[in-house]
Amino acid sequence: MLSKEDKEKLHKIYRDICIAQNAYRYDVGGYLDSYEQRKIALRDVFWAFDMAGEEFEIEDEVRSQIWTRTSDEIGRIKYEKLEG
């Protein structure tokens, strides 16, 4: 059984992947398979801990938004929400 904090971490990781995928689609206008592979792997974790379906709520939330990839002042990748 996962603690509440662990569930929140899992949600955050999954959401971060969805945001990165969203930004790639917006910035490049394409599709990158590695994001989908990461999401599939994490879906298995959701299902293993009886959290099936929660990942789709996160996807729906991010899908209704537009994100773009930027860099901070020292070059670290960050994502900015443009819409939604």
Keyphrases for this structure?
single chain, 84 residues, alpha+beta
Architecture overview:
With 84 residues, the protein is an alpha+beta fold. The chain is 61% helix and 15% strand. The chain contains 3 helices and 2 strands, in the order αααββ. The protein has a two-stranded antiparallel ribbon with strand order 1-2. Helix 1 (4-28) packs antiparallel against helix 2 (33-48) and helix 1 packs parallel to helix 3 (54-63). The longest helix is centred in the first third of the chain and has 25 residues, at 4-28. The radius of gyration is 14 Å and the shape is globular.
Uncertain ranges? none
Counting DSSP H or I runs of 4 or more residues, the number of helices is: 3
Mean pLDDT: 94
Strand fraction band? 15-25%
**Which strand order does the major sheet show?**
1-2
Number of strands: 2
Rg (C-alpha, Å) = 14 Å
- Helix percent reads 55-70%
User: Main β-sheet, in a few words?
Assistant: 2 strands, antiparallel
For the record, give the distance between the C-alpha atoms at the N and C termini, rounded to a whole number: 34 Å
Q: Could you say which overall geometry the principal axes of the C-alpha atoms support?
A: globular
What would you call the structural class?
alpha+beta
Give the H and E element order. Answer: HHHEE
In brief:
This protein is α+β, with helices and mostly antiparallel strands. Helix content is 61%, strand content 15%.
Compile the SSE list and pairings:
Blueprint: H1 4-28, H2 33-48, H3 54-63, E1 66-71, E2 77-83
Antiparallel strand pairs: 1-2
Helix pairs in contact: 1-2, 1-3
